[in-house]
Amino acid sequence: MRDLTLEVGRGEILALLGPSGSGKTTTLRLLAGFERPDAGTIVVDGEDVTAAAPAARRFGMVFQHYALFPHLDVAANVAFGLGTRGEAASRRVREVLAMVDLEGFQHRPVTALSGGQQQRVALARSLAPAPRVLLLDEPLSNLDPALRERTRRELRRAIRQVGITTVFVTHEQEEAFDLAERVAVLHQGGLEQVGTPDALYDAPATAFVAGFVGRTNALPGALLGGRPGTRALVRPEAMHLVAPGASGGGGGAGLRGVVVERRFVGGQVCFTVDTGGGLLVDVPAPHGAAQVGEPVGIAVDRVLWWTEADGAGDAGDGGGAAP
Fold it and tell me: Where are the domains of the chain?
C-alpha cells in the first residue's frame, strides 16, 4: 500500500473495491491488526491503535469462509467470541441472533444451515462482543447469485439496524454499490477515488475509475468530435440505436455501423455494432430494434473525455479532458 488516507464516519458503511491485487484485503488486514504498516497511523475514536494487538482493537471480523465450527451448534458458535458462559452470555446470543433474523436457531447445527444463514451466524458471532468497528472480507463470495442477492439485503438490514461502523472488501461492483454508503476504489496499492456510488459512476476522478466502474465503450475521441489525442468513454446506456444518418436530437454526437452480434440480456438486447475498422461498441436496445447485418446509427447522449496520456490502467481507456 502507498499513500493511503481514509476516514470513515461513525456508523458509516464503506466498501473497499478494486481488482485482484489492488490492496483491498491488505488494507482490511491492516485495520484488523493482522498486518503492521511500515509508516502511518490507524486511529479509532481518537485512539492510536497502530501497534495494538487485534483483540485489543475491539473490531469484529467476518471472514470470507465464515470460519464456523462445524461441531458446535449456532449458539455455541456465536458465544465463542464472548469468552463467558451463563445466563448473560445466553441472553447476548439471543439478542444478536434476533438482530440477524435467526431467532430460535440457537440449537441447530451450523452444518444444517443454508449458506446465507451461515453467513448471518458469522455476522452474529462478530457482533456478540459489541465491537466498535465491523470488518468483512468478501462476505458474499461463497454464495450463488440468487442467494447472494437475498443475503445482501439481509446483511444490509442487519448492519444498518445495529448502526455499527463497517468496512468491507469486495470485487463485485453491484455488491459495493448496494451495501455501502461510500466506496473506496483501490488500484495497484493506491487509492484512486472515494465517494458515493453515484459520484464514482457519473464523475470519475481518474481514468482508471472511469474504465473500472460500470461498463463502458472506449473510442478514439476524433470519432465523436474530440481533439486529437483524446479518448471518448461512453456508458452503454448513453447510446441508443437510430436510423442510419438520423440525428439523436439534443445536439448529441453520433456514429454509424453494422450490427454484428445480438445478445439477449433479459429486458433488453445488447447489440454489438462494428463502427468501422473492427472497432466494436455495445448498445442496449429493445427487442426487435435491429437485426444482425443491418446498418444502424448510434446516437450518443453523454461522453467522458480523457487524454491519451491519462490512460486507464487495467480497466480500459478513459479520462477527464474537454473534447
Answer: 13-203, 210-315
Q: What angle do CA 131, 136, 139 make, to 5 degrees?
A: 135
Cell numbers found for residue 295: 446498418
Model pTM score: 0.83
Quick one: cell of 129?
462482543
CATH node for 210-315: 2.40.50.140
Residue 268 CA to residue 287 CA, distance in Å, equals: 6
Cα torsion 19, 23, 26, 27 to 10°: value is -110
Give the residue from 156, 132, 152 showing the smallest Cα distance to 140.
152
Beta strands in the chain (DSSP E): 13-17, 43-44, 47-48, 59-62, 133-137, 165-170, 182-187, 190-195, 217-220, 230-234, 239-242, 253-264, 269-274, 280-285, 295-300, 304-307
pLDDT one-digit tens code per residue, 138-162: 888 777 777 788 878 888 888 888 8
CATH of span 13-203: 3.40.50.300
Q: How many CA atoms lie within 13 A of 71 on its CB side?
A: 0
pLDDT tens digits along 222-236:
888 888 888 888 999
* Domain 13-203 identical in fold to domain 210-315: no
- Output phi, psi for 208, to 5 deg: -65, -45
Question: What is the C-alpha to C-alpha distance for residues 165 and 44, in angstroms, rounded to an integer?
Answer: 11
Strand 182-187 and strand 190-195: pairing? Answer: antiparallel
